[in-house]
Amino acid sequence: MTGMLAAKTAVVTGGCGGIGAAICARFAKEGATVHACDVANLDRPMPQGVLAHELDVTDEQAIQNFFAGLPDGPIDILVNAAGIEIEKTIEHTSLEEWNRIFAINVTAMFLMSKTALPRLRRGTDAGIINFGSYDGFIADPGLAAYCATKGAVHALTRAMACDHGPEGIRVNAICPGYVDTPMLQSFFKDNGDIDTLQNAVRDVHPMRRYGTPEDIANLVNWLASAEARYASGQLWVLDGGLSAQVQQMRI
Q1: Which of the following is catalytic: 134, 146, 178, 210?
Q2: Distance from C-alpha of 148 to C-alpha of 151, rounded to nearest angstrom
Q3: Is 146 a catalytic residue?
Q4: Within 10 Å of residue 32's Cβ, how many Cβ atoms?
Q5: Does residue 2 sit within a domain?
Q6: What pLDDT, on a 0 to 100 scale, did the predictor assign at position 251?
């Protein structure tokens, strides 16, 4: 590795999950001190340089306590990767489910970013990286609430980039397509013939594969580094070309 994040401090929500864990591992390899925040998988082995913290990112007081408990000094990178998915139309989505997915996918991003800002202002080329989705541009059937949250993330990312760019804080969003994570495998298990569905999802991509957590971590690492010092306010789609094609025209 290049050491491109040497001496930097990063906070990653959802840091013990599939994509989050890959991001934490990559950051640590590049020399950063990484704080992985999650409510699950906290017992999984962490690479050297990664510290796991139990944190409910919907709890404002818990977030404030978390940041207050970190060693004094700047924070250079905040990655808002925590998220959930609800596989329902609006007709079958309860208000409780709607509020919960917005709390985790959107409101938590607001709370984490707001609380981190004083420390980010003290960082070097500080950056916030949010997790949107290609579902914030186009929609998969049966994911109405999820799609709504990702559209909100995209708008919030642009607004934050405009507001905090003058303070030297860059804000971007990663918009993945299908990535091989426990969330994706859960989707497969809930929809019948797993092998057939996996092959269909793979083949609909021009690259004939879906992504890996490491694919996402590579782009996040670049956005967190000084090489991306002029990149801000952008929605970076990483989906193997999936959203570049007109699906009904494929033969």
Answers
A1: 146
A2: 5
A3: yes
A4: 26
A5: no
A6: 45
pLDDT on residue 208: 86
How many separate domains does the chain show?
1
Give the Å distances, CA to CA, from 19 to 84, 210, 228.
Answer: 13, 13, 20
CB-hemisphere CA count at 13 Å for 141? 1
Which residue segment(s) compose the domain that 87 sits in?
9-178+213-249
φ, ψ (nearest 5 deg) of residue 173: -125, 135
Asked, for residue 144, whether it belongs to a domain, the answer is yes
Q: pTM of the predicted model, to two decimals?
A: 0.92
The helix (run of H) or strand (run of E) holding residue 50 is strand 50-54
Return averaged pLDDT per consecutive 10 residues of the chain, 251 residues in all.
91 95 97 96 90 98 98 96 96 98 98 98 94 94 96 98 98 93 63 66 82 96 97 96 73 45
Q: SS3 of 131, please? A: strand
CB atoms within 10 A of CB 14: 27
Angle at 38 between CA 118 and CA 117, to 5 degrees: 10
Residue 200 forms part of a structural domain = no
CATH number of domain containing 227: 3.40.50.720
